[in-house]
Amino acid sequence: MNVGIDIGGTFTDIILLDDAGKRIKAGKILTTPDDPSVGALEGLRALLSETEIRPERLEKIIHGTTLVANALIERRGAKTGLIVTKGFRDILEIGREKRYDVYDIFLEMPKPLVPRIWRKEVAERLSADGRVIISLNLEEAARAVDQLREEGIEAIAVCFLHSFRNAEHELLMERIISERAPEMFVSLSHQVIPEIREYERTCTTAANAYTQPLMTRYLHRIEDRLARLGFKGKFFVMLSSGGTAHPDTARRFPVRIVESGPAAGAIAASFFGHLAGEKRLLSFDMGGTTAKTCLIEEGEPRLTTDFEVAKVYRFKKGSGLPIRLPVIEMIEIGAGGGSIAHLDSMGLLKVGPQSAGAYPGPACYGLSGQEPTVTDADLLLGYLDADFFLGGKMALDKAKAEKSINEIIARPLGLDLVQAAWGIHQVVNENMANAARIHVVEKGEDAASYTMVAFGGAGPVHAHGLCQRLGIKKIICPLRAGVISALGFLIAPLSFDMVRSYVCRLDMLVPQLVNKIFREMEQQGMGLLKDAGVEKDQVLSIRTADMRYQGQGHEIVVPIPGGEFASQHLELIQEYFDIHYKRLYHRTIPNTPVEALNWRVTLQGPRPKINLRMDQPGRLEPSAALKGTRPVYFSQVGEFVSTKVYDRTRLLQGAKFSGPAVVEERESTLVMGPATSAVIDDYLNLLVTLE
After folding, report:
1. What is the DSSP string of 94-140?
2. Three-state SS at 623
3. Cβ distance 289 to 338 under 8 Å?
4. Cα 414 vs. chain centroid, distance in angstroms?
5. pLDDT digits (tens, 9 = 90+) for 228-286
6. Cα(354)–Cα(350) distance, rounded to whole angstroms?
7. Is 358 left (phi over 0), alpha (psi -120 to 50) or beta?
8. 508 vs 293: CA distance, rounded Å
9. Between 484-491 and 260-275, two packed helices, what is the crossing angle to 10 degrees?
């Protein structure tokens, strides 16, 4: 038995998968914000009790959390110091020397994680190729550590100039710290991100140090509670890149799990797209706090290292802290079931990005929340059943939802309740559609050519409206869509990503040096995977390089052949570069040298085997799953329509029906508008076609 646990901003989702990888049991519980591990363990305990499975039978638990991201956004990390090369004390403020909005005279830049008073300079210098120009001044180094210790610093980030080419000074600095302040957590830039670009490397290393004590304590706490529960199997953590890793990796590099939950959702979406025979997918994951969308090409989510966290302005690139590590590329929108509806200073209706979260929650939760949310609006429109939320475990208070929307939205705007509720629903759909449309267009793609995979607690409710706006004609909604991100943890393989910088023109490349770089990275990665129980002959090595035309400021990712790198590979790599560059920009630049900057390796263990195909055909008539009817509001009709309501768990393969319809299961609800049709496939996915 294997378990996936996804801790979100509002709910914690839990998936239990049997040994054959066929039967799934799911649980959902409100997240406990003060200590997320409490809710996770409560939910796991309840699911084990419901299924009558003893903790000793669990072989593997894989966990993802927003703890790191929240700590960076809310500035709840450790008291952190930074030690840099003399002359680079202000690098976190200088940044890229670029304004993300040139017309905003009141521009607000992201606040550094380390205040200037806790940043110390020491004399040392390396050349760009790693040669020692000035040796590390041991007296200054010791004095810097002593000063930070006197300030009560918990963690230190060390980032010396060009240390990615020669780690000698950073390792010496680590030894001095361990001698003079052994209780401190230490993050060295050449271990966190051995890559060119000082600002990004320093910021990423500082973020790692800032969250290291928090993550270490959290993992110790959850491992201890699992042990007391009786769990004796293996515990892993989800990485932002879509792989899983040993908890020791998360302790050393917590910044690698900053997007672990959303990454699992994208992995799950690609899995269900593969089952349905679709390779071009738009993953749509809408939970209680945020919505995430991700483009999936050829069955694999896109990866990026151009990622920011804690943005001053959610949709403005450059307004956040850069995290230069592999992350599944997606956009996050402040639009979830708990997103708060309000009137701005102009009296216009706005929804989000503020969220009611798990507590106080939407008004209809009855947990003291007073402000109207998307969930309140969906309840009034008939999309949700007040008596069947979370399968009836959590009754919703319709009267409180009506009061909240009436007092804060409807009455000030001179609208009736239904108009106000529909306005909230429509605004949040427009927000998500606009963000998704921009994201797709930036990639040179057309949203209408994709199939949507809808999941999350609120995703299936809003998928139809979103597809109408984007021109998408097909929706895949998996069984237990409300907790499907947690299944992504059990689908992802154990893996680790490494990078080294070696800047050189392609026609001047030294193959022996490239082989040495790949060999060192693969040896390091093999060691990490071996610690997690993966044998060498099971490991897949995927090589890539960041390349650009000489003189350009941005790179593209180019695949590199495996095995020993030799001169004859250069022509093949040039061909790969031309193909990828032309796909992105529809042209190449003749007679211009190509240069490589960073060399990357992803080492990946075997993918877990999961077979959700049903062995026996079920009953085809959807009438067997009919729960009844209820009035549901559809804008196409402009009024409430008596709509059939189906029990999702009783819809078996081959069942076909048409909209308008509502399909309910314990963790989520799918809303199908008029002019839609649906069929259940052999994996119990619900395939919806918009006509």
Report:
1. HTTS--S-TT-TT--PPPPSS-GGGEEEE--EE-TTS-EEE---HHH
2. helix
3. yes
4. 40
5. 999 999 999 989 888 888 899 899 999 999 888 788 889 999 999 988 888 899 999 99
6. 10
7. alpha
8. 40
9. 80
